[in-house]
Amino acid sequence: MSERSEVTIKQSTAAREAAAPPRKEAPGVRISGLTVVYKTPAGELPAVRDVSLTLEPGSITGIVGESGSGKSTLALSLLNAVQPPGRISTGSVEIDGLGDVVGFRGERLRKARGQHIGYVFQAAQNSLNPLKTVGKQLLDLGRSHGVDDLRGLVREAKELLGRMGLDGARVLDSHQHELSGGMRQRVGIMLALVLNAHLVVLDEPTTALDMITQANILKIVREVHAERGLTTLVITHDIGVVAEVADRLAVMYGGRLVEQGPTRQVLAAPRHPYTRGLIKAIPRLVGDIDEAQALPGRPPTLVTVPKEGCVFRERCALRMDVCDTVDPQARVDEGAYGPRIVACHAVTVKERA
Ligand SMILES: Nc1ncnc2c1ncn2[C@@H]1O[C@H](COP(=O)(O)OP(=O)(O)OP(=O)(O)O)[C@@H](O)[C@H]1O
Ligand code: SF4
Ligand SMILES: [Mg+2]
């Protein structure tokens, strides 16, 4: 890793360490043995398979992986919002103060979303109601969650929009078509934060933004996270976004979590061949555009993902016979900064970073 990217990572880590300690409202989340399947012409196939992930109270966790790796499906599971033809087939999602949301239905589920779990769905910039102003949609959101102080809610929304560089009053008076993609994306982030939920899930929150606006928005996400004592999950295909914002990093491939650990350690010394490939492909992290190397091959689909053995083997330079038949189990190393978890037959030596 180059000096420049080391510096960037050190700076963002220092900023996070200087932030206020997490308050006790921040809930912990424990996802255990989660499998989510979609019905296809070839039968029910898993998009997320046997995933276990803990979000520590007050932490920001980033999930990265290429398109189709199952990131959004995992995010939707946190809200128990996987829609047919999908369903959670096994596993649990335990949220402190709420319980296992996989069993939630109806009113209980609706209340949990919004009040306890704020979220921005992927492509939030396209999910506003085209017929209503943003302000009207904000009031609808407040009323549907029993907010008494609607003036306070509007004040809060304007404040959040202002922090993200927008004229809050103007945005609230606007319809979707009057706002740019980047503006709509910021409206999505405002709607995720405005009800004061303490668990926040952001699925590709900055894809429609240019680099400078993206950096500003990530800074605000970090600030709001620390000020309010949140537990935050950020989903992205851009490992640079995670480097900016997350305390812990989880890497997904073919519906599996292949590596997890403290962001700084994983980026500085990735262990799984897929994580190494992802990092090598990012000029911003490698430090030099000429050194960046695209990962060969393409990620699998639900139909082509191997049913047994390692899901990454078709693209792996370290592939061995055992990789074709035996699923690599997650191996946990407890480190001073939290556990490092890797699922790969080739990673046998402890490399404490
Ligand atoms: N409604 C659906 N019906 C069938 N298959 C689906 C459905 N939604 C997602 N999938 C499949 O599940 C897998 C995981 O999709 P998911 O959207 O969770 O991936 P992702 O990592 O969020 O990708 P992206 O980076 O493109 O957003 C993909 O193979 C996708 O084609
Ligand atoms: S388990 Fe085998 S195929 Fe999979 S990443 Fe490790 S070495 Fe490569
Ligand atoms: Mg997605």
From TrEMBL:
<keyword id="KW-0067">ATP-binding</keyword>
<dbReference type="InterPro" id="IPR003439">
    <property type="entry name" value="ABC_transporter-like_ATP-bd"/>
</dbReference>
<dbReference type="InterPro" id="IPR013563">
    <property type="entry name" value="Oligopep_ABC_C"/>
</dbReference>
<comment type="similarity">
    <text>Belongs to the ABC transporter superfamily.</text>
</comment>
<dbReference type="Pfam" id="PF08352">
    <property type="entry name" value="oligo_HPY"/>
</dbReference>
<feature type="region of interest" description="Disordered">
    <location>
        <begin position="1"/>
        <end position="26"/>
    </location>
</feature>
<dbReference type="Pfam" id="PF00005">
    <property type="entry name" value="ABC_tran"/>
</dbReference>
<feature type="domain" description="ABC transporter">
    <location>
        <begin position="29"/>
        <end position="279"/>
    </location>
</feature>
<keyword id="KW-0813">Transport</keyword>
<dbReference type="GO" id="GO:0005524">
    <property type="term" value="F:ATP binding"/>
</dbReference>
<keyword id="KW-1003">Cell membrane</keyword>
<dbReference type="GO" id="GO:0005886">
    <property type="term" value="C:plasma membrane"/>
</dbReference>
<keyword id="KW-0547">Nucleotide-binding</keyword>
<dbReference type="InterPro" id="IPR003593">
    <property type="entry name" value="AAA+_ATPase"/>
</dbReference>
<dbReference type="InterPro" id="IPR027417">
    <property type="entry name" value="P-loop_NTPase"/>
</dbReference>
<dbReference type="InterPro" id="IPR050388">
    <property type="entry name" value="ABC_Ni/Peptide_Import"/>
</dbReference>
<protein>
    <submittedName>
        <fullName>Peptide/nickel transport system ATP-binding protein</fullName>
    </submittedName>
</protein>
<dbReference type="GO" id="GO:0016887">
    <property type="term" value="F:ATP hydrolysis activity"/>
</dbReference>
<dbReference type="GO" id="GO:0015833">
    <property type="term" value="P:peptide transport"/>
</dbReference>
<keyword id="KW-0472">Membrane</keyword>
